[in-house]
Design goal:
The structure is a homotetramer of 338-residue chains. Chain A has 338 residues and is α/β, with parallel strands linked by helices. Chain A has 2 domains: 137 residues, 3-Layer(aba) Sandwich (Rossmann fold), CATH 3.40.50.720; 183 residues, 3-Layer(aba) Sandwich (Rossmann fold), CATH 3.40.50. Helices cover 36% and strands 14% of the residues of chain A. Chain A has a 7-stranded parallel beta sheet with strand order 8-7-6-9-10-11-12, sandwiched between helices. A 6-stranded mixed beta sheet of chain A has the order 2-1-3-4-5-13. In chain A, strand 6, helix 8 and strand 7 form a beta-alpha-beta unit. The longest helix of chain A is centred in the middle third of the chain and has 21 residues. The first copy, chain A, is elongated. At the A-B interface, helix 6, helix 7 and helix 13 of A face helix 6, helix 7 and helix 13 of B. Chains A, B, C, D: InterPro entries: D-2-hydroxyacid_DH, D-isomer_2_OHA_DH_cat_dom, D-isomer_DH_NAD-bd, NAD(P)-bd_dom_sf.
């Protein structure tokens, strides 16, 4: 390990080289550090063990239990370059050691928020159906064709979860409506009020809104907390966007209720991905499907690379990171793996 | 004609009773005025002639050439309750007489802007195609499925026309991008700069933007000003939303270029509506179609009723109208009928 | 009169050459038109009479009664380059003739709004008094010195008048508070609601706000409508900014009540200007005075020149003006001269 | 110590009971915890020692070196209820132990930002001077009296420091100008760009702006980093607001340069407070003085109480605090005591 430059382990799987280690990134990091890289799988144990003594920054969610942290005396930061946490890090021990543990969730959120807004307008205004009807020669013009259409303007909108996704979505909704309610059990009512949204209980956020965005992360404690009884509270014909994790809803019930026309739905996430070839969900009516496409486009990876480079440089200069998200040890430890 | 109350002629065709004369409107207007109403067609000449002596406000675009204006000494306002002007009014004579001539264009604009934004996200992010692929079992997940997707965030966006539609759309785009260029030959560069948009020549607005919104009204002078040569300036794979009037583009060329994959397109307006049953346009690929659905939903008519009631009351109190749009006599006279 | 260029009469008194006819303006206008200029007083009658036949645009508030308008067949616009109207134009006749009558009120409003905000913070936070106390060695530090200070954040704010001044002020207040009430008898409640302000009756706007901005223009009908009884409704210790015209308040009562400590006040306008040398108002306590300084600084005249040039060019091209304010004939005719 | 309720030590000096322990706070905290309070001085050592075993939250900046942290096994948070850090806590050890160390800096920032904006408008528009001249009968009206006035609209504005104060100030400046430059050596250029401000070197931020806000906190490393040579870069007649800590400038040079008319200044903070009775600074011309009044008004303490209560409740529920500011251990340790 030459030159007194700090050592960075680049172990970003499931992120690929194309996503997070483009030429500009490689060049910028090589100016600052010696790099050890591993792509295509998580770095094998022996590679990780080899670098523990010297590594200052790990990019990727390499398993770092306490016994490894104990042997990584120079480690300053773990940058997972993902939007969620895995349970393979001892978050509390990392905090004890003053190691920054950072996720790229803020980098993925804008793309997801954009997608959610597109889904919401598509559902409320009937965009894909209009195209089908026109192609079938079955269209009606103007208000005659808009019988079931409604608008986001001045609509009551509810968000379940106000983390990175919610915070990226609200600015996109503001030009349409001021009536934004949020349910988030991890945040206080007063905090939500300072964000100019209305704090709301779970039953209220479900029952009182024309648009409902499900943006909650999956934890070890909230699996299917939106069960059939809760989903039954959603008002008739509301537009419901399932954007974060399928695990937080009783998925089969959700699909069934949408199919039956209880509400309109957009679904981008599934309990198992890929969905089985013959899974009957593929035939469900009244749902706008997509295959986990909301966040993962090149623009999001560009944002990850930008935030990662920026914060790595800050950390190597002894300054606090500004752009990636810091792990809250308890909450990160509760996150469900994927 | 009892009671000294002012007389209002309600002749709103093609607006229907359900659109603009709901119970609350009838009740509110009857408190202020005597009403003569005619629905289902333009009011017949003899009905119009009968009321000319007394009428103070006409709601609808009743033909009002100079000879009728001459015989309507108490007329204070013509409120067309539509989004566009017809050539059946002598706009200059109405101005000479201090008669307010008002359109409901500002009431339709929000719904159109919402639709345009939904179309733009749908095109860039591939929303309807994703649903089809999932249903066909042909989906790919995450970035693998997002090969051609791009985002509005930080994108270069161009608007052709900055009337009511453009002014309603810009606030919806602001949370995504500051790079908004506008071409509008009726507005000065300095005015556009005060609106925090970049003034742009026609060739530049066509060639320099990833998203292009065609929002220009049709006049007697601008038919097909976006001809094939102009459309050829649009960058490859841009998303083009045709939202105002089909007449402003060389429609067949536009459809052909989109079909060939030169750009992505959303088309809500057609040279002839309804489109003929067997019109080959219905088979054109790479276009998201809709049947003039952008503006005409109940929410827009609610907005028309609200603005109309508000301004009628202002005018009856001798105050200037605030919410509907005033005709610019020269420009209104150039508007193409529909 | 050479060359077929249009003729512009430049008669801007009381605006001076330095205010509205700087080198760049002269050069820009000379490219478009032949100019006849008169500074230092209103143009003498014979000069005006000489140009009536040909003049297309008058810049300044030259007297234009009907008999002169009748003899000015080519006149397209009168641009008064001031913030208020005088009664020396036949506004209805000008409208009948399709002549644009335009004021520069929107150009003066930002500077006035900035001044009002500065006055409001100065009153609430005690800025000038703090300086005096420090210089006198009489200061107290921190909260001990802030006994009577209060803040604009989350405060209830009332505006009397929502013309150009109010519309320029509201965006400056928004980052502080959403609790903005407006009283304006010329505007409907619904219009004000669309502006995201709360419509308010006069008694309520006076009695319910911690900050009160008096922004109403003076008309022939509203002299001293804020009389002593009305002013008595203002809550104790509120901050009251008198910004538009002294004529709209019972000025002596206003000064007396402020002096007695009923409320804090900032006064920029006076019933007679200049104020007499020995006028006792100069000794009134509890008032922050200024000598009609809110609007008239070079930055405002730069804005007038910019708007004027822009709209003159539009009009000469046959396009509607966009930036200056159009006279509402009835309201303009009611404006009090100054 | 009854009931299994958690123990809170309330030791907020120099905050007083009136500032941070009002009736509503006492009541709310007593519902959640057992309270031990000490006001008027820092809690004596024996009182602190007595509670170490049990204390879960300390409110106030009680000295907490490592040896005390070692003996406080249940301690979850130290909430200093101040805007700055003192060196009497072992910040790194607290972090190692997962103890939240929180300051109330975000609560003081809005009041300071409001004051800064008021000072800036007062300097640029000459508010206090206008009052003096009017009272002396020496006023001139309108533009004649505004010879040296300038405006924030479209002005170039520079901020030195972009912590809580800068982040509270920028939204107040936005309605006036988009030309906001920031110098902050702890933040990356990319981060500042995401905040829609222009990153700027120190020399540039000093030399290129009409308004300059000095908002940097004092650290052990930046004393008087704005020395006479740096201050000489400020453009003639700029408005300079010294708002955070006097220690960051060469104070005597600053006062001298302002007095000589090199620039306009507002000064709220001093190297020694209180300033000595006969200190010649009190006679310095061209400066708007105040006695550390920008932040410390009742509205700020109300905000502190609100944030403190909110985050204490979060922490007692095992959730992360949301509203107060977390210490960055290295940066907090560098903070200069006051």
């Amino acid at each position: 390990m030459s030159s007194g430059k700090p050592l960075i382990l680049f172990d970003p799987h499931p992120r690929t080289e194309a996503m997070v280690f483009t030429g500009d990134v490689a060049e910028a990091l090589e100016r600052e550090a010696n790099l050890i890289t591993h792509f295509g799988s998580r770095a094998p144990d022996d590679l990780v063990e080899d670098v523990l003594d010297d590594v200052e920054i790990i990019i990727g969610q390499t398993a770092m239990p306490k016994e490894r942290l104990d042997r990584a005396p120079r480690l300053k930061a773990i940058v997972n370059v993902k939007a969620n946490w895995e349970p393979n890090i001892d978050y509390e021990e990392a905090q004890r050691r003053g190691i920054h543990v950072l996720s790229a969730a803020p980098a993925m959120a804008p793309a997801v928020a954009e997608y959610c807004l597109g889904q919401a307008i598509a559902l409320a205004r009937g965009l894909p159906a209009a195209d089908c009807r026109f192609r079938d020669g079955d269209e009606q013009y103007g208000i005659a064709g808009n019988g079931t259409a409604y608008s986001l303007y001045d609509a009551a909108v509810g968000l379940i979860g106000y983390g990175n996704l919610g915070r990226a979505l609200v600015p996109l909704l503001r030009p349409f409506t001021r009536r934004i309610s949020v349910h988030d059990p991890w945040l206080s009512d007063r905090f939500l009020q300072t964000q100019d949204v209305r704090p709301s209980g779970l039953a209220d956020v479900l029952s009182e809104n024309r648009f409902l965005f499900i943006l909650a992360g999956a934890t070890s404690e909230n699996e299917a907390f939106l069960d059939a009884a809760k989903l039954a509270l959603i008002p008739p014909d509301a537009s419901v966007i399932l954007a974060s994790r399928a695990e937080v809803v009783a998925f089969d019930s959700f699909v069934e209720m949408a199919s039956e026309g209880r509400f309109r739905a957009a679904v981008d996430v599934f309990p198992q991905e890929p969905v089985a070839a013959g899974d009957p969900v593929r035939k469900a009516g009244n749902i706008l499907f997509s295959a986990h496409l909301a966040g993962g486009l090149e623009a999001s990876y560009a944002r990850i690379r930008d935030m990662m480079l920026d914060d790595v440089k800050q950390i190597l200069r002894g300054l606090p990171p500004q752009r990636l998200q810091r792990a809250e040890p308890k909450q990160a430890a509760m996150a469900r793996s994927r």
